[in-house]
Write a structure and sequence with these properties.
heterodimer, A: alpha/beta, Rossmann fold, seven-stranded mixed beta sheet, globular, B: D-amino Acid Aminotransferase, Chain A, domain 1, six-stranded antiparallel beta sheet, elongated
């Protein structure tokens, strides 16, 4: 088992004929992901990725023709919220939105529609997820992974790659790695992913990678203290040196009014018994210190 | 993006919200002309004008940036004093002039994006005029929270509920209408925050000099969502370039995210989380980062060269740390950019480069041939950069 994606994933890529969409769809296909359809309005009937994937005008058609159950969105920011709505309306239950730079208020009604439909949205502004050896959805390089029992959840992109590479180098493989995104309004929070990891038989240990801004890490700490007893967990928080009142690249990464500081997050995690690394390279050792031996 | 009080008030007026009149003055003479007008206004109950510095930092009052004047002469003098001020490092280039209000009672009302619930949230209090953080710390029970519906916004009944909970008394209808107006302002402008403090009941002279009270937005603070600026063409004109470092402006041109810091080790990284981490590790290794710089995904050679110029524009930079984890970004592209940038750079600053991920081997060969200092791990790269900066000092 893995969470969110796996061997039964049947992926439709919205925006497959765009530059980013095509590049990453190819990488997903090469990794072994079951990419069953692409969707670009007006390009229905064409074949993408050298004839490997049929393109449809609507997600509804793609679902009807191919049985797609998961979507990955590479549509530009102006059209991405609508792309999420279309996926959910077509009955897709797991939607990854990779798109960066969506105005925050656009996502408020969209996440509500996703909730009402009983679907799961990951992102926006996220790198996606990988279930090593089975499937990858999004833009995380496949080469950094190894199969194993560590669940990784992160608000970041390249920082996640850094942490995953450190785990792989230390012979600690991963069950599923999920990037939840760096925007203020995202579909899936740390606690949602932790809940899935808690129920996943395959996930034996957890790495959580947070950053300044908001209170998602504090909520995750509270959840872990209550529901993840006995699961080795290690964390890293980026932005200890970030100045107050400045947006550090991610729209959601900002300390304002003294709230959302790295210190507050580290304190909450440590109070929940979670060790916080000073560098991503220390994460494997912290998991071992917490009693995890790998497979 | 933060905008000035006067511009925020214009956005409120555009949504039909009650805001007392004001004028913006760039010179003491202009301030005088505005004062003459407001002093002669029969509605003005205090017989005075208020002159407020327009700067994008808090604490204007304490810094002497908000003053009253009872005559045109005094208004000109006061405006001259305020226009000569520098508040928290920012020069005052303009002032707002308006009638000095006779305040009966001060409230607080704001709308912001509540990340935890993914909804817009109103924060209201009958204890306005002071910082809401202070009220929250001392008398949390004096604050009312109310979420807007993500699909319906704030229906009339919810606006009334909010108004009664805050306790606007006989002004509840105005309070409810203002709450709805703040939400409209938020949505129409893609704001992150619309804050009125104080929202005040003021007394003015009505017809035949009879005192009348009304609820008005006396101050206004609005921050706009940077991601939505392109669909509001008028908003770019509201940007205050004085409040920005010149490098911020240059960075925007190349679509780079650059934030100047106080240290001496320049950082160039792809990805915001990794860029923050790189700063943290520089600090952990005993150094001080000079900047946050995210070159973004898929950065090409020319973008890398522009980023290098930005870093070197800061004379305090003594060493540069380049940290690239290639995913979309190709390591060899970055290496080409670095080699090109170093050939052009005027100042010889030691550079430590770490490139891993996509095309890392090609990058390593290029960097080796150009005799760059390289590092395998992030920790090693930080340590080498700190050491290099130290040697320059010595």
């Amino acid at each position: 088992m893995s969470i969110l994606i796996g061997r039964d994933t049947r992926l439709v890529v919205q925006g497959i004929t765009g530059r980013e969409g095509e590049f990453h769809s190819r990488a997903m296909l090469e990794y072994g992901t079951n990419v069953v359809a692409g969707m670009t309005p007006g390009k229905g009937g064409q074949m993408a990725l050298d004839g490997a994937v049929p393109v449809f005008n609507t997600v509804e058609e793609a679902v009807a023709e191919t049985g797609a159950n998961t979507s990955c969105i590479f549509v530009p920011a102006a059209g991405a919220p609508d792309a999420v709505l279309e996926a959910v309306a077509a009955g897709i239950k797991t939607v990854f939105c990779i798109t960066e730079g969506i105005p925050a208020l656009d996502m408020v009604p969209v996440v509500e529609e996703v909730r009402l439909a009983g679907a799961t949205l990951i992102g926006p502004n996220c790198p996606g997820a990988t279930s090593p050896g089975r499937a990858k959805v999004g833009i995380i390089p496949g080469s950094i992974h190894a199969e194993g029992g560590v669940g990784v959840v992160s608000r970041s992109g390249t920082l996640t790659y850094e942490a995953v590479q450190a785990m792989t180098d230390a012979a600690l493989g991963q069950s599923t790695c999920v990037g939840i995104g760096g925007d203020p309004v995202i579909g899936t929070q740390f606690v949602d992913v932790l809940r899935l990891f808690a129920e996943d038989q395959e996930t034996e240990a957890i790495v959580l990678i947070g950053e300044i801004g908001g209170a998602a890490e504090e909520e995750a700490a509270a959840f872990a203290a209550e529901h993840l007893h006995g699961t080795p967990i290690a964390a890293f928080i980026a932005g200890r040196t970030a100045p107050e009142g400045k947006r550090m690249g991610h729209a959601g990464a900002i300390v304002s009014g003294g709230r959302g500081t790295a210190a507050s997050k580290v304190e909450a995690l440590e109070a929940a018994g979670i060790h916080v690394a000073g560098s991503p390279t220390e994460l494997p050792q912290l998991l071992r210190d917490a009693g995890y031996r790998g497979r | 993006m933060k905008i000035h009080e006067a511009d925020a008030k214009s956005l409120l007026v555009a949504q039909g919200l009650p805001v007392p009149p004001w004028e913006v003055a760039l010179t003491p003479t202009q301030a005088r002309a505005a004062a003459v007008r407001f002093l002669a206004d029969p509605a003005n109950a205090t017989g005075k004008v208020v002159i407020k510095a327009q700067v994008l930092v808090g604490g204007r009052g304490k810094a002497g940036g908000v003053k009253l004047a009872a005559s045109a002469d005094e208004a000109e003098d006061v405006a001259a004093q305020i226009l000569a001020l520098e508040i928290k490092g920012l020069p005052v280039r303009r002032v707002l002039v308006g009638p000095a209000a006779e305040i009966v009672k001060e409230y607080y009302l704001s709308v912001l994006l509540d990340r935890a619930t993914k909804r817009l949230m109103f924060i209201g209090s009958a204890e306005g005029g002071i910082e809401i953080e202070q009220v929250a710390a001392e008398r949390p029970e004096a604050i009312v929270y109310e979420h807007a519906d993500p699909l319906l916004g704030l229906p009339d009944y919810a606006a009334r509920e909010l108004a009664f909970k805050i306790g606007f008394g006989s002004h509840w209808k105005a309070g409810a209408a203002i709450a709805k107006g703040l939400l409209r302002t938020m949505l129409a402008n893609d704001a992150d925050l619309v804050e009125i403090n104080p929202l005040a009941v003021i007394r003015e002279h009505g017809a035949q000099g009879v005192p009348v009270e009304r609820l008005v937005c006396l101050d206004a603070k609005i921050t706009l969502d940077d991601s939505a600026l392109t669909r509001h063409p008028g908003h770019e004109a509201l940007r205050d370039l004085d409040a920005e470092d010149p490098t911020d402006i240059e960075a925007r041109r190349y679509d780079l995210t650059f934030i100047k810091l106080d240290g001496d080790i320049g950082c160039m990284v792809n990805g915001a989380g990794l860029a923050m981490t790189t700063m943290d590790l520089v600090k952990r290794a005993g150094g001080e980062p000079a900047n946050f710089l995210d070159i973004g995904g898929g950065a090409k050679a020319d973008r890398v060269a522009a980023a290098m110029r930005l870093i070197l524009d800061d004379p305090s930079v003594k060493a540069i740390l380049v940290n690239i984890f290639g995913g979309i970004t190709r390591g060899d592209e970055v290496a080409h950019g670095l080699i090109e940038a170093r050939a052009q750079q005027e100042r010889d600053v030691p550079m430590v480069v770490r490139i891993v991920g996509t095309n890392a081997e090609e990058a390593a060969q290029l960097l080796q041939a150009a005799s760059f200092v390289t590092a395998a791990s992030l920790d090693e790269a930080a340590a080498k950069a700190v050491a290099a900066a130290g040697q320059v000092t010595a």
